[in-house]
Amino acid sequence: MVKVNVIFHSIHGHTYKMAEAIAEGAREVEGAEVGIYQVPETLPYEVLEKNGGN
Fold first, then answer.
1. Shortest CA distance to 34 belongs to which of 12, 3, 1?
2. Which terminus of the chain is less hemmed in, N or C, by CB atoms within 10 Å?
3. pTM (whole model) above 0.85
4. pLDDT tens track, the chain, 54 positions
């Protein structure tokens, strides 16, 4: 068995989409155990809002 963890940070969602694609590909490997984890945002909401983040 193989374990794969995809860990990502995404403000606008683009990196999230790439992480999902990587996890989807890894799930195609027989016996693979795949986890996908998003790193928590550390920027204040006000900064994200000014920069167009979610």
1. 3
2. N
3. no
4. 899 999 999 888 899 999 999 999 999 999 999 999 999 988 888 887 887 765
